[in-house]
TrEMBL record, chain A:
Record keyword Metal-binding present: yes
Native organism taxonomy: Bacteria, Pseudomonadati, Acidobacteriota, Terriglobia, Terriglobales
SMART domains per record: B3_4 (SM00873), B5 (SM00874), FDX-ACB (SM00896)
Cell compartments where the protein resides: Cytoplasm
Complex and partners: Tetramer of two alpha and two beta subunits.
Binding site for Mg(2+): 352, 358, 361-362
Entry's Gene Ontology BP terms: phenylalanyl-tRNA aminoacylation
Similarity field: Belongs to the phenylalanyl-tRNA synthetase beta subunit family. Type 1 subfamily.
Entry coiled-coil feature ranges: none
Name of this chain's protein: Phenylalanine--tRNA ligase beta subunit
Domain FDX-ACB: from-to ranges: 603-698
GO molecular-function term, one example from the UniProt record: RNA binding
Entry GO terms, CC: phenylalanine-tRNA ligase complex
TrEMBL record, chain B:
Protein name: Phenylalanine--tRNA ligase alpha subunit
The EC number(s) this enzyme carries: 6.1.1.20
Summary of subunit composition and partner proteins: Tetramer of two alpha and two beta subunits.
Limits of the Aminoacyl-transfer RNA synthetases class-II family profile domain: 134-345
Amino acid sequence: MKILTQWLREYVPGISVSDKELADDLTLRGIAVEGVFDLGSHGSLFDMDITTNRVDAMNHYGIAREAATIYGLQLQPLETALPAGRPGHIYPVSIEEPALCGRFTARVLRGVTIQPSSGGVAERFRLLEQKLISNAVDATNYVTLAMGHPTHAFDLDRLEGGIILRRARKGEKLRTLDGIERTLDTEDLVVADERQALALAGVMGGWDSRVTEETKNILVEAAWFDPVSIRRSSKRHLIHTDASHRFERGADFNALPVASALVSRLILQAGGHQEGEMVDVVIPEAAARTAHRSSIAFSVGEARRILGATEDPAGITAGAAETILTGLGCTLQKQVQSDEAYQVTLPSWRLDLAGEIDLIEEIARVYGYNRFRNTLPAFAGGVVELPWAAREAVLRRTLLALGLSEAVSSTFVAAGDAAAFAPQPGSFVPLGNPLSEEAGVLRPSLAPGMLTMLTLNLNRDVENAALFEIGTVFGGSTDRVEERPALAFGITGSTGAHGPHQPAQPVSFYDLKGVVEELLAKFASKLVYFDRFPGESGLMPAWLHPGRSARAVVDGATMGYFGELHPDEARRRKLKQTIFVGEIYLDRLYRQGLRHPMARELSRFQPVRRDFSFIFPESVPYARIEHAIAALGIPELRSFAPREVLRDPQGKLVPVGHYSLLLGAVLQSAEGTMREEQLQETAQRIMTALHAAGGSLRG
Amino acid sequence: MSQEAIPQLAAYNDAALDAAFAALSQELDASAQSLTSAEAVESFRLHWLGRKQGRLKAISEAWLKSAPVEAKKQIGQRFNQLKAEIEQRLESASTGTGSGALDAEAIDITLPGTRRALGAEHPLIKTMHEMVAVFQRMGYSVGVGPEVETDYYNFESLNFPPGHPARDTQDTLVVANQERKPLRDRLLMRTHTSPVQIRTMEQQPPPVRIVIPGKVHRNDAADATHSPIFHQIEGLCVDTNITFSDLKGTLDHAMKEFFGSNVKTRFFPSFFPFTEPSADVQISCPFCGGKGCRKCKHSGWIELLGCGMVNPAVFGFVQQKQPAYDPKKISGFAFGMGVDRIAMMKYGVSDIGQFYSGDTRFLEQFA
């Protein structure tokens, strides 16, 4: 909003500070001046940002009142005197919707001359870069800028009968001032005559009854409309006008006669006269809600309780509170029983003031926020972490250490992705007003977002990427949305150590599995295993390669899925490079406690290494071999791990349909150095078990 | 190495023995000069310690044989010392720490090292954790809440009445198919983290001190400074005798902790439906020290927080479930800040969208 300091100073002649200081003083009191522009001999132009609750300050007089309060100066009254009207009949006004229109005034001006504005109005419009239309229309706009109340001028000769405030009829048409014909809703309040709707009340006037160069007689409307009704009409018809902006924030019920008089004075400057007196229809219930609200109790002690210590040891005194509130238009009546308690009558233009706390805010604001001290409250109590904070921190630390970078992706996915990636079929939640079609559904999985991010990297010729995301996923329905924490990771390109000293290793399934294993190893669990199900079983996510993906199971619960992206999904996304992706259900993982490491006695005796080279048919997965050895329960077996896997499609080194496995065992006893025969016997047991598992010793 | 003559001992007193052994020690030094090959080491060993013709043996036999009984002990000790010296030379030569041997094994240490890159922390998450940690040190517990909220928690209980213009400032993304529900039950993407204030107070009587980090959403078109997804940190402190000056002191202290002790704060009246009095907080620009720079738009100040005293109307809503929040007996303050903007300033990020792109080139800068 633009404000002229010249105009402000006309209302508060005593302001002695410069425009720049005035701007700072207003800003510190919450009447924010965002920019000050020098207009030379015309003072300055303030670019202002008035908060939505302060509709009373969205005009020159309102800001002048603030300035008068700050500096303790007198605010000049507005000049509303009009020459006495010539006798005439009382113009009929009827409010049929008292809930929507609380007050309506009508003033008839006859014999007016419609011409371009001149003088002070024209000059101020020029300084404000406001469009000039005609003296009558400009008068209404000028008065809004001056004191904030919107008014409207009708061409009286276009009106028939009298003014009726009613709801629009079903399907009723109105051509508004912007030239658009609108179909009204029965919820819309209209200003009508006996024949038809003339204006969308409080939002925009009508085309047919507008003032034109031919207009001779005018009806000046100043009214008070229900804020919620205006807001609904404005939203319904997508018309946001200066008038609707003000009415929907609550106009000053008492300002109507003043606004009407100010507009009429301006129009009559070019000739004409008033006929009769201003017609004023008041709905008492609306007056009681606004202009005649009951007074509220206020005590300075309560202000001190809320506001605390000031730099000035005197603090908030009763005198200071009285001066501030009176300056803002309140009337204070001291309570008999206490010096510091009052009954306060609220000004009609401050509908935002309703309770004691509002008055306390006014006092703090005008007194100056920065005159309060910086104190720290005492506190006795513990700091409580989120129950999963430690688990999340361990996950994040582990993933970062493994070389994955943290990413944050969109909360929303396309409907197709939602359907394809929802862990439970059909369990996803669409938005009612999405930003775009690609962002129409709350993500049921972090996987599509991860794929989008990896795709972005590949499309920008970044070949190596390793990302993870910890975030919320959404399931359920539009009736009941379920939120769960999840973790996704995605790797593509080459991985691990890089430099000129070793060749880059392309990422494989086992890199991703290693990440999952490291993560799961941080949690306490009795049994962790990985399995997979054939493609046709439908038990694996459809977006994963059925032969190269796995389910992670911890203590009987599925923790998530990971593996190579399904080739169909890769094609759909035009991905040429292999991508490995996975998702962990953190709500489930967080049910496991973190593993608490315990030191064990380290053996003093020498460990002995034994290697076993076996050939197994492809039908024997490694897990079976691992189980077979574990089942032996050899206490001296410190570790047992595959060290090399070899396949030969030509069948030269290893028969086709088989693979060779080099297994390394470390044997170490806690009791003593193992003797040769003991080692022999243990090795024999291991070999027997390997044979039983389907293996044969490699020749 | 040629067989040298056995030196003669001048006398058996200490001075004469010292001189004789010093000469042998010099001879040892000289012969140990070129132990750069295995052959040289072996020949050195044979020369000094050889069982048959070793010089040490020859000399000790010659000297000890003619020595008087009382001097034998002195001579023996000195030979042991010399032998230890010889063995030490041999040992260092065979383990390859002789400077000559190791120089031959030199590598180009100017080639880049093999790097195992750590993952990069996300600048937003890092900023959020750092800010939360500041408040944890001040006694605040961490609170969180759902990202999909009801109209009641996101608006109504925070004193945004239905149909109120203040709702316009927070363009809301709504869940589909809510029209037939009562307004208060309709689901939407939370537009701020403030609903967690209400949820926390409903569950816990005063005193309350929580800091609430979280993701929020608005129906905003994306540009360099706007994103429909962003992050906020909210704080709430409720107790008896909590004042506006406590709010000022708390935020002043927190901003000094986060940005550095030189940072100053100043408070401007503002409007939020759920606080009263409400304030906007500016900090003196931590990047230029308040002199004026691009980051503070040459004003020396940066607007960073919204805050205020909890509106009694909000306590009124909470009292429906927790009667202890009697606005006549308790009071409190709340504050909130945008994490994205802070992270953008702190790390010199010019486009907010980069935070949500997953672009590795962007993220790896923060490793």
